[in-house]
Amino acid sequence: MLENSLPAALYIHIPFCVRKCRYCDFVSYPYNESNARLYITGLRREIELRVGGKLDKRWPLSTVFIGGGTPTCLSTAMLLEIINFIKGHFILSSGVEFTIEANPGTVDADKLSALRRAGVNRLSLGAQACTEATLGILGRIHTHAQTVAAVRQAREAGFENVNMDLIFEVPGQTLTEWQCCLEQVVALQPEHVSAYGLQLEEGTPLKEQVDSGLLQPCVEEDGLAMYRAAAEILKTAGLEQYEISNFARSGRQCCHNLVYWHNEEYLGLGPAAHSRLGGVRMSNEANLIDYMTRLNTGALPVAWSEDITPENDIFETIFLGLRMICGLDLERFRQRFGRPLSQMYPGLTESLVNKGLLERRGNHLRLTQRGLMVANEVMCEFTPTVNILDK
User: Which of 2, 63, 171, 191 is positioned for an S-S bond with 252, CB 3.0–4.6 A?
Assistant: First the structure.
């Protein structure tokens, strides 16, 4: 790999869980120690192949995100080994944002303290819900009491930046229950909250139960009410919405995710991890054995890659930029692509503004409150159907 193609954002995928959640279609496997050890051996080899081992050639990182799966189902010793790999092959900037995802049922005071001492400074807790009934429908292994305990233990360990993931539109979930959950989460005083509408993915047990009629999906009207409730309750608590699904206190926006939303480059390591490097999008082998087989031959474990065309690069930059509440930076867009947005899509921006779906604020183009409710439909208006670079 060319040194100058390495980005400043690193994602590590740990593909193990105690038990797969009933709504999840991410790549993950049941945890066992032998497979975890095999994975760590492979991850070390992939890092060496990607960036080499010379200390004077280490690449600086501004964000690190260890996700999964459930990273914290690994032992503390294994997690520290992975963190040491990262430190040994990259340079962490003085202000690095170093995140690890955790299930509240897989952490304790000792593990959190060890992670904090090792340099992890942002904890992302998969709380998801606050009632045992909804947690059970989702197939989560933890209780809300464990979520509360995990936040307390994280504070005692020295974490000053805690995110809590939540899911709404769960079958059987009511607006009142969701509002109560938001209030309980707010009481824990997290610096960041991610609130996602449930996606019923093909092949998941939850989707099968809904399709069979055993569970009733949330109706669209209730889902919109839940979304509005999240925005209102979290804003009142000092958590400003800065992206369609994300809310943060001042200065606590997730720097790693901002790399994605600005459509910038990032390196992903581990089975099924995705990368965007040097104008190429790629993903690793998802199967652990296939991942290891490639690495054992001295090859990178890339299963799929494609060149990012200029048209797709433009569309993705617009799509992701409009996800942010501040909107798409029009000057940044012009500098990146050499031409203004209005020239590439003549008349479209004005039409969407006139319909009350987009608005201009300074040098940004952003979704209105009405536009947020139909965000995907608005973004898809920018799908390139002809070569927009010829306009």
Answer: 191
